[in-house]
């Protein structure tokens, strides 16, 4: 008994020593994968939403990628190729899967071509117990063309999401909506009570910096190939496709940067960029789903008009990934 007590006291002094000399700086910077949507084969070859795979996906993220937040139904989730019902079902599956891995922070993308659908998705997200916040990209066919049009379109969606918070999802390479984000940030912050910032997927770092300098809202960074540049400029978290399978490397980059080890952060960033350069020629989403499959999690196909890699392409991608040493990172 005495020996146990003595060793406990020893343990206590060791812990006291560690805490005193190595104070834990708990970082709030989060890596949030923009999760892919699982499909299974169907008779007509367009892919059937397969939510039965979500639970394995959640476990994979937690156990192999040290991830506890997800961005559901965004670009890489092929949201604009899903029906409204499918998008709701998908979100419900993530909400149901979360407790099995001890909880997850779930951010739901609710943007849609019809504002009516976007409002319906925002209300649906709010109605579920387990969605932390939402984000919305603008319509891409009839596009808002000014800050005021964008605020006018965004406001009712934000209202439907209230009291959940909402971010604007800026991804001009896909939406062709290239409105000045610093001006929008100012206008949206004053007009919309639950607006909390921008998920920023663009290479224009000047505008990103202007947004950060305004000091209103959070800026989520969406270009994995320059994650650490985003951190330097003031990103508060990052949302990206590669954090479904490259998170250990990305976490190393984040931690190196946070502990002031710039050289090491550059090296990890270099790996992320190398992976993306290797993967992109095979096509973004199909290639990344193929990588996840090579790591033991089969999320199935993609939905038309996207097409999955042919077997030989998959083999070549694997060869290229082996050549850069990815599977040992
Ligand atoms: C255009 C696009 O889909 N961007 C994603 C996020 O928003 C990124 O996560 C990219 O997939 C990633 O940076 C690789 O290029
Ligand atoms: C990467 C990202 O944010 C998306 O797929 O929506």
Automatic annotation (TrEMBL):
This is N-acetylneuraminate lyase. Pathway: Amino-sugar metabolism; N-acetylneuraminate degradation. InterPro entries: Aldolase_TIM, DapA-like. The keyword Ribonucleoprotein does not apply. Keywords: Carbohydrate metabolism, Cytoplasm, Lyase. The active site is at 169 (proton donor/acceptor), 199 (schiff-base intermediate with substrate). Pyruvate binds at residue 239. It is found in: Cytoplasm. It comes from Triparma columacea. Coiled coil: none annotated. GO terms for cellular component: cytoplasm. Its EC number is 4.1.3.3. It catalyses: aceneuramate = aldehydo-N-acetyl-D-mannosamine + pyruvate. Pfam families: DHDPS. Belongs to the DapA family. NanA subfamily. Transmembrane segments: none annotated. GO terms for molecular function: N-acetylneuraminate lyase activity. Gene3D superfamilies: Aldolase class I.
């Amino acid at each position: 008994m005495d020996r146990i007590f003595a060793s406990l006291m020893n343990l206590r002094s060791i812990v006291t020593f560690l805490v005193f000399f190595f104070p834990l700086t708990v970082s709030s910077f989060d890596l949030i994968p923009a999760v892919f949507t699982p499909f299974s084969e169907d008779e007509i070859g367009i892919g059937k939403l397969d939510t039965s795979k979500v639970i394995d996906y959640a476990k994979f993220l937690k156990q192999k990628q040290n991830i506890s937040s997800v961005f559901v139904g965004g670009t890489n989730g092929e949201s604009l190729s899903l029906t409204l019902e499918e998008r709701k079902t998908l979100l419900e599956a993530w909400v149901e899967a979360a407790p099995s891995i001890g909880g997850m922070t779930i951010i739901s993308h609710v943007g849609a071509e019809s504002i009516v659908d976007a409002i319906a998705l925002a209300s649906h997200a709010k109605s579920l117990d387990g969605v932390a916040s939402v984000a919305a990209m603008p319509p891409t066919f009839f596009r808002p063309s000014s800050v005021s049009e964008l605020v006018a379109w965004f406001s009712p969606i934000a209202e439907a999401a209230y009291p959940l918070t909402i971010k604007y999802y800026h991804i001009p390479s896909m939406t062709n909506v290239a409105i000045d984000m610093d001006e929008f940030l100012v206008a949206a912050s004053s007009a919309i009570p639950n607006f909390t910032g921008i998920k920023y997927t663009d290479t224009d770092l000047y505008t990103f910096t202007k947004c950060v300098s305004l000091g209103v809202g959070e800026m989520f960074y969406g270009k994995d190939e320059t994650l650490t540049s985003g951190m330097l400029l003031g990103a508060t978290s990052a949302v990206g496709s590669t954090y479904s399978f490259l998170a250990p490397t990305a976490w190393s980059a984040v931690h190196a940067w946070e502990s002031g080890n710039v050289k090491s952060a550059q090296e990890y960033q270099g790996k992320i960029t190398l992976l993306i350069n290797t993967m992109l020629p095979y096509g973004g989403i199909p290639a990344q789903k193929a990588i996840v499959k090579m790591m033991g999690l089969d999320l199935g196909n993609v939905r038309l008009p996207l097409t999955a890699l042919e077997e030989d392409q998959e083999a070549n991608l694997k060869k290229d990934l082996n050549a850069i040493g990815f599977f040992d990172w």
